[in-house]
Amino acid sequence: xxxxxxxxxxxxxxxxxxxxxxxxxxxxxxxxxxxxxxxxxxxxxxxxxxxxxxxxxxxxxxxxxxxxxxxxxxxxxxxxxxxxxxxxxxxxxxxxxxxxxxxxxxxxxxxxxxxxxxxxxxxxxxxxxxxxxxxxxxxxxxxxxxxxxxxxxxxxxxxxxxxxxxxxxxxxxxxxxxxxxxxxxxxxxxxxxxxxxxxxxxxxxxxxxxxxxxxxxxxxxxxxxxxxxxxxxxxxxxxxxxxxxxxxxxxxxxxxxxxxxxxxxxxxxxxxxxxxxxxxxxxxxxxxxxxxxxxxxxxxxxxxxxxxxxxxxxxxxxxxxxxxxxxxxxxxxxxxxxxxxxxxxxxxxxxxxxxxxxxxxxxxxxxxxxxxxxxxxxxxxxxxxxxxxxxxxxxxxxxxxxxxxxxxxxxxxxxxxxxxxxxxxxxxxxxxxxxxxxxxxxxxxxxxxxxxxxxxxxxxxxxxxxxxxxxxxxxxxxxxxxxxxxxxxxxxx
Length: 493
Prior knowledge:
15 helices; mainly alpha
């Protein structure tokens, strides 16, 4: 019997090693999509263990543990969906890389939640449900649990289909649905729900109009000027001053609850002072930065890059300060009710609960945020630093105006409405320029209908998907919450 030659042995070994390598590649390819959910699941388990350790052997501790797990799940979904609205425009305008945006957003969201997050959260979510209808401890606990689970599931589903939805409205719908299941339709404060429904229209329209107005200002005062650089030296410091003043007023109004109670007048005065200071500081900086730049639009983008990054960071800080309660509000209510054996209209948020919210938002952003960031930043309409700057500025201004008017608005709807506003303004502006363009015959040039459709600058498919998701958020979350409440009540009573 002849032995195989050494060369054949090496060929056989190479083939076997090649097969093993292919198996490893295939395993890596299959396992990669499971990494994110695996880390998310681990975080939820850690949140539950932390609740078990901190809540100790008190009565109903398993209910608090379950609520902590679902609170962590909700926070993960807010990070995956809501934060995209703040960072999407900056990434779409290429002012930030995806990695840079995620790092800045994670730091600023967590800082906003832990440093300036509200001490107190309304357990009946802005007076949606009559407290008398859910005054019994068991009913209240299951209502809050159902609201938390349904809101988290709905935001998760919306993220899957690529629709940025309002987590505030998801929680509102969850509380309403559980309240109806527990105490009937009469328990709902319908005027409050009517105001929230009105905000579905008011928020995006107001955000879009303000963003379009600022883009019109930039086009007329800077882009269409003969000397663009000289115009930018005059107007960019003014725009930066408006941005700084607006954010100062916004953060004073929304993000300083732990330090001092600030009314709208004081916050506007703070904004005015800081806006003037920012204008004075920025003017020489822009002059130095603009030296040697060519007189073209590409040069202007460089002047808006840093203000856009700062505005995205400030939006994330304000969002963390204002919206973390959406994740942890029902959890804080459950913790308080089971700790003291009574239902309270307002409760303090324990620090460990706030930490779950802050870290959950950061993990959700890292693991699942890029999909929605790309969608908001580049798939609705094409953004550059100037357009993205208008979106960020309109978001802050709209929230200030809405707070002054007492309107319950959604930061998600405002930011995405700003993106739509910029896109639709560009469509209208292009149409107007085409109509005014004179052809060889001396008459305005006519564009065929098919070519006009091709030149649309806002993707209609995304527009319809997002608007549909906004409209059905509250009823969908309400139906899911009612079903979950009835299920919990049946299984555990």
